[in-house]
Amino acid sequence: MLQSCVKNQVGCFIFESSGGAIYADIESPPIPEMVTPCPLSPYGIHKLVGEHYLGFYRQEHGHTSAILRYGTVYDPVSY
Hints:
Layout: H1 2-7, E1 12-16, H2 42-61, E2 64-68
């Protein structure tokens, strides 16, 4: 997808990452942005790799991207 964005001059690629899965177990959210990611699951690893690909395409091709790290949005009542 990123290669197609570069080829077709897409202005910005928006990547939906993860608000928690890329970090090790953090006892008290919110997680500050300066915490180093350390995923503990294949899902978290996959999300972090996606972020690294965006960095590569920014460095190699000057392609703009945005990363959105959403947290879990479940209401405690909905369990």
